């Protein structure tokens, strides 16, 4: 029995809704996963996360392997018990840190050798170790180790990274021992269709539980991201969950749902919140502006989130101007609730067959 079960329910053009059954609960897709890199969605505890209507969260293997160590998390009952989150969890493998911490990473066919960004010690992440670490953490969905490449790198480099990602995918599958975790393969191949095609053919031949499109949103133009993400989605199996990694803004997510992706993650809503950015409608404003100091309404009119039901713009403006920690928490709850409300709206528009019309109105 596979660890997860995925069924497409409704579809509208290439977009679809679905149900993803995991050992820790059912996820209605398309779904957005708040980022809990260090086993914490910054400033929120699990009750706060539940209050945002989030269904699944994402943690990071590289960061948790360095601190506190995956064996420590395992000793404390695994990630679910460690952070007291009862719902589904996905852990990223650490491949992305090749890119984000490139000065500290050395890559060879064996794996990735990191110099810790905390204390300079060495962490070796091979495909086998990445699986072992993620088996210790105990997430519902784990990811293969991959080597992302950016559009600025040569075709030769991108091809090599993509082939290495394939070799690593084979090794990841071979080293998996737990039956209660799903393993997703990652598609690479940069910004050229033929390389993406080859990567999809290779990775999908290995029959993973789901597939992720990686190596996008690394600072390139939006149009390039959309073109490749959309092309890749057309090649992915219909009956498996499709995860577009690290995307993105509300508009990016809407476009990607339109293309037929099911899962998303991004640190943006909570990072924007900590800088005072508040999402509303199809835009956002900055709560720190003096303009809001005497406003008695909620952050977004009509929003039913914990923050909007209980606190005024004026109070949250004061918290931000006084650098009170509560401000970061309340703004993060609202922004994540905004993202989850958007996902619900996308789901119902797909079910009603009105996604095109919704996107047109949102963009206008
Ligand atoms: Zn709200």
Structure, explained:
With 364 residues, the protein is of the alpha/beta class. It has two domains: 5-266, Queuine tRNA-ribosyltransferase-like (TIM Barrel, Alpha-Beta Barrel); 278-335, no CATH class. 42% of the residues lie in helices and 19% in strands. It is built from 15 helices and 16 strands. An eight-stranded parallel beta sheet has the order 4-14-13-12-11-10-6-5. It has a three-stranded antiparallel beta sheet with strand order 1-2-3. Helix 7 runs parallel beside helix 8 (193-204) and helix 11 (268-274) packs antiparallel against helix 14 (325-352). The protein starts with a strand and ends with a helix. The mean pLDDT is 96. Bound molecules: zinc ion.
Report the total helices.
Answer: 15
Main β-sheet description: 8 strands, parallel
- According to CATH, what is the class of the largest domain? Alpha Beta
In the predicted model, the low-confidence regions spanning at least 5 consecutive residues are: none
* Ligands: zinc ion
User: Could you name the CATH topology of the largest domain?
Assistant: TIM Barrel
Assign the CATH architecture of the largest domain: Alpha-Beta Barrel
Query: Rough shape?
Result: globular
Count of domains: 2
Report helical residue fraction.
Answer: 40-55%
Measured distance between first and last alpha carbons: 46 Å
CATH superfamily of the largest domain: Queuine tRNA-ribosyltransferase-like
SS strand fraction:
15-25%
């Amino acid at each position: 029995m596979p660890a997860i079960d995925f069924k497409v329910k409704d579809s509208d053009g290439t977009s679809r809704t679905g149900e993803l059954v995991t050992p820790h609960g059912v996820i209605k897709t398309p779904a957005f996963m708040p980022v809990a890199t260090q086993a914490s969605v910054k400033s929120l505890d699990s009750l706060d996360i539940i209050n945002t209507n989030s269904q699944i969260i994402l943690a990071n293997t590289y960061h948790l392997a360095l601190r506190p160590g995956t064996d420590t998390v395992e000793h404390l009952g695994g990630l679910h018990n460690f952070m007291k989150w009862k719902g589904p969890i996905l852990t990223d493998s650490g491949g992305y840190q090749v890119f984000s911490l490139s000065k500290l990473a050395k890559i060879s066919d064996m794996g990735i050798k990191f110099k810790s960004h905390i204390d300079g010690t060495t962490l070796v992440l091979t495909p086998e170790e990445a699986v072992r670490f993620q088996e210790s953490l105990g997430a519902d969905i784990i990811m293969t180790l991959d080597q992302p490449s950016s559009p600025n790198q040569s075709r030769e480099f991108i091809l090599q990274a993509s082939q290495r990602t394939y070799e690593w995918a084979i090794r990841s599958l071979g080293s998996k021992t737990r039956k209660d975790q799903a393993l997703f393969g990652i598609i690479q191949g940069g910004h050229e269709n033929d390389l993406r095609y080859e990567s999809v053919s290779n990775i999908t031949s290995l029959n993973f539980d789901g597939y992720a499109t990686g190596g996008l949103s690394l600072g390139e133009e939006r149009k390039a991201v959309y073109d490749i993400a959309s092309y890749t989605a057309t090649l992915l199996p219909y009956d498996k969950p499709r995860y577009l990694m690290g995307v993105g803004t509300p508009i990016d997510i809407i476009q990607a749902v339109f293309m037929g992706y099911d899962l998303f993650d991004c640190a943006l809503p909570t990072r924007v919140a900590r800088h005072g950015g508040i999402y509303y409608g199809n835009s956002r404003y900055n709560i720190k502006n003096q303009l809001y100091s005497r406003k008695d309404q909620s952050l977004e009119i009509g929003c039913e989130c914990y923050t909007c039901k209980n606190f005024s713009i004026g109070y949250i403006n004061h918290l931000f101007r006084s650098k009170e920690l509560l401000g970061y928490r309340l703004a993060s709850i609202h922004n994540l609730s905004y993202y989850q409300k958007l996902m619900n709206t996308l789901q119902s528009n797909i079910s009603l067959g009105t996604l095109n019309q919704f996107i047109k109105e949102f963009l206008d």
